[in-house]
Design goal:
3-stranded antiparallel beta sheet, 13 strands, 15% strand, 10-stranded mixed beta sheet, 394 residues, alpha/beta, 12 helices, Asparagine synthetase B
Length: 394
Amino acid sequence: MDVESQKNHLKAYGVTYWVLNKELKVKWLLNYRGGSFLLPDTDKIKKECQIRGVSFEVISNNNAESILQEISSPSKNMEAVVLEKAPKIAVYTPKGKLPWDDAVTMVLQYAEIPYETVYDEEVLNDGLLLFDWLHLHHEDFTGQYGKFYGAYRASSWYIEEKKNAEILAHALGFSKVSEEKSAVASKIRDYVVGGGFMFAMCSATDSFDIALSVEGLDICEPMFDGDGTDAGYQNKIDFSKTFAFTNYTLERSPLIYEFSSIDMTRKRRVTKDSDYFSLMEFSAKWDPIPTMLCQNHTALVKGFMGQTTSFTREEIKSSVLVMGETKSNGEAKYIHGIKGKGFFTFYGGHDPEDYQHKVGDPKTELDLHPTSPGYRLILNNVLFPAAKKKKQKT
């Protein structure tokens, strides 16, 4: 899985998932040649790699043991993590959304990793309990329809999506979309606290935390929900309810395409040519989780924008780990944390291979980006729940 040897990094994850689905175990060799996978040597697996265009090497048992011995050395920042079971994956996305509307859905399809879609009805009916891993589509959990009002309020697609959201909320027994989305966010929180793995990108990151922190408050202007906001709601925010962010200021204007001060999009001063974020280096033996999530064939990843491009460092809780940052701008791009018995990862931006994705832009063709380091980070998170959990010392 290093730069020179692997022709298709993304599909390599799909092969690994396929092997796990056959109830075979895999070793993920953290920090060894770009985070390589050690698979059983069978004709079926070799054929599957050939069919999918994935590069592989056949090694002897003695060679494998020698590699594992090297990895186990205290002087090497490496670790071999056992992957035991293919996680069952859910993508939270509205009905009728096309796969290329979302980077995660796109890369799952490209890597041939199976998933199921869920939305508000399934979430509210505890459907998440059937899944090990949940991805949040680029959703607005605050009930402000993505803050698209300023630019797109007269567009047919905006009017249609608003109407459909209201119909769904009423059908589920809520008087407002904001109330329904708040209930959905709370269910997702409970899923994570109970032991689930959640991965969110773009606006699903900060809007999720905002929805948790303003539970019971009305922060929606009349064009969103038909009535005014609660007086002084900024001073009533409960930051203790959030996963990752704290002490942020909400954006009150419905005309501004922004939720809060969490996002760096309007504050950053980085040109496209110089927009890169660096991945942190962790101890593979002592911090296997962030090491796993940062596996890549490069430590410097091309930046990309979104409604929520990146996160203000000062508004990230001290308990949350920053795994990727744009040093020149002092912003966090890729963060991870623990909530209850579960885990969450937030990844800023919309599409790792489409720098400034806009409404109506053509889809990204991943056949042109089979070695994308930005997309690899997504797939690290997909395989993360498969890792064998180490017993805690008591």
